């Protein structure tokens, strides 16, 4: 089967631009045989490869990616490892579902905590938690108060922050109130994916810059890249939204593009005016209208704003310049005390959702298991999906597999162009309805 669409990201990812240059692992050349293939070196593929290597120390694993580790969605996100569901819901079923999700997410966070510590991954990994913020009193009533009640029902710790206290912690007068939860992690995601890649066990061979252009699954798995070929009896599919190019999950995925910007570091004088002591991360009450933001350890501010339907999985450089201008204006509206701070980098990345928010997990063909469709929460969901796909493929008992399966499977979408019209209308409606949270 010919692979018609390959990943194509811009080269502006600020998280990797602020790191030292790195030498990628060599690309695939010639013919290689392995015991396992893992396709895709995002959080899912990295976790799957590590788990397979640990479970089968005498077997070989070929981890293959079209690009460089840290240059795909996983290394260009906002850098939150999230441990709580975005929407909890208050029915017993929903609460039980939330408990299962939290168990899975914390399993992933624990895995990442250990990897960061064991291999000394220098990625600004921090346990600073996050603020869930509302701009308007309406956002407070419609989102934050129900969220607070749900956290109480779940027995989860939180802190309600508002007014001057919130302004002092965030350094912006823009928000009315926030619910602070301590459990998540913050990091430079490109530094994390690089560190996870470079610390893989020796029985994993990493091939970067190796786009798979042809795929066969008869008599074993065979992948062709422009200069090489890899064969193995079994494969874990971790190509997220691109897994549909391999014939999996047809008409199940919604492709979205999201954009982020990072400023230059604040000067000492600016930091004194800003007056914020600790790095923070905040997510908005509404993901479409609001803005996700971070204040990093090296005193930069990150903005993630703009989420739109993008079935082509391509985004134009000209349109990105317009995003940069918009991000600068949003930044200055939120931080009027920092008028001279410029945006240094603006980039885009692709995320993949299913209509019912279910992951693409489990067996998808003979000898192929998948861990895809992370519904835009891929740091934790990709990590636990990858580990559990490796466990399942290795026939290893893990009670979390049942929890993972309870999240369901992606539902079928209407055919295009009805889908396009429906999704675009719904997104416009969400933006308009939540404009008070912009
Ligand atoms: C701007 C932005 C902000 C975000 N913020 C957050 C956040 O704060 N927290 C969070 O949890 N999530 C966030 N997300 C979502 C998160 O980044 C994704 O859910 C996650 O990276 C998906 O991980 P993955 O391993 O499933 O897929 P990916 O990271 O997309 O990895 C799939 C890999 O497959 C490879 N591939 C595809 N096709 C081929 C082929 N033919 N040959 C070889 N390789 C191929 C790709 O190159 C890619 O590296 C954000 C996303 C964006 C874009």
Estimated structural class: alpha/beta
The tally of beta strands, per DSSP, is 20
Main sheet: strand order: 6-7-5-15-16-17-14-18
Q: How much helix is in the residues?
A: 25-40%
Form type: globular
Strand content: 15-25%
As an assembly, this protein is single chain
The ligands bound in this entry are:
flavin-adenine dinucleotide
Q: Extract low-pLDDT stretches.
A: none
Mean pLDDT: 95
For the biggest sheet, the summary is: 8 strands, mixed
- Total helical segments: 11
Radius of gyration: 21 Å
- First and last CA, distance: 45 Å
Concise structural overview:
The chain is 33% helix and 23% strand.
What would you note in describing this structure?
This protein has 438 residues and is α/β, with parallel strands linked by helices. It is built from 11 helices and 20 strands. The strands form 4 sheets. It has an 8-stranded mixed β-sheet. A 6-stranded mixed β-sheet has the order 9-3-2-13-20-19, with helices on one face. A 4-stranded mixed β-sheet has the order 1-12-11-10, with no helix packed on it. The site of flavin-adenine dinucleotide has 42 residues, from α2, β14, β18 and α9.
């Amino acid at each position: 089967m010919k692979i018609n669409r390959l990943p194509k990201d811009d080269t502006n990812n600020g998280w990797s631009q602020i790191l030292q240059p790195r030498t990628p692992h060599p690309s695939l050349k010639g013919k290689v045989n392995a015991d396992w293939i893992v396709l895709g070196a995002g959080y899912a593929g990295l976790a799957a490869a590590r788990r397979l290597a640990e479970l089968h120390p005498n077997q070989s694993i070929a981890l293959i990616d079209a690009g460089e580790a840290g240059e795909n969605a996983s290394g260009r996100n906002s850098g939150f490892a999230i441990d709580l569901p975005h929407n909890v819901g208050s029915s017993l079923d929903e609460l039980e579902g939330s408990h299962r999700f939290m168990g899975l997410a914390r399993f992933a966070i624990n895995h990442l905590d250990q990897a960061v510590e064991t291999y000394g991954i220098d990625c600004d990994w921090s346990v600073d938690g996050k603020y869930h913020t509302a701009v308007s009193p309406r956002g407070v009533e419609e989102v934050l108060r129900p969220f607070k009640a749900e956290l109480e029902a779940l027995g989860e710790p939180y802190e309600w922050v508002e007014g001057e206290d919130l302004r002092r912690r965030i350094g912006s007068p823009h928000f009315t109130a926030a619910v602070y939860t301590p459990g998540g992690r913050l990091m430079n995601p490109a530094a994390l994916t690089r560190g996870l890649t470079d610390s893989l066990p020796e029985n994993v061979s990493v091939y970067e810059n190796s786009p798979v252009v042809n795929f066969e699954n008869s008599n074993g798995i065979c992948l062709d890249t422009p200069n090489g070929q890899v064969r193995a009896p079994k494969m874990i599919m971790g190509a997220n939204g691109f897994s549909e190019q391999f014939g999996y999950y047809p008409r199940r995925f919604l492709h979205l593009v999201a954009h982020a910007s990072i400023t230059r570091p604040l000067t000492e004088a600016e930091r004194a005016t800003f007056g914020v002591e600790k790095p923070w991360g905040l997510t908005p009450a509404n993901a479409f209208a609001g803005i996700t933001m971070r204040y990093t350890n090296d005193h930069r501010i990150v903005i993630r704003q703009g989420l739109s339907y993008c079935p082509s999985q391509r985004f134009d450089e000209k349109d990105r310049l317009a995003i940069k201008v918009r991000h600068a204006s949003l930044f200055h509206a939120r931080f009027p005390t920092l008028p001279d701070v410029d945006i240094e980098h603006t980039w885009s990345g692709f995320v993949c959702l299913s209509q019912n928010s279910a992951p693409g997990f489990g067996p998808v063909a003979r000898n192929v298991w998948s861990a895809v469709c992370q519904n835009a929460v891929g740091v934790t969901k990709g990590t636990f999906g990858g580990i559990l796909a490796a466990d399942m493929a290795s026939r290893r008992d893990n009670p979390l597999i049942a929890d993972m399966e309870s999240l369901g499977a992606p539902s079928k979408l209407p055919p295009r162009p009805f889908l396009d019209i429906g999704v675009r209308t719904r997104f416009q409606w969400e933006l308009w309805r939540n404009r008070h949270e912009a």
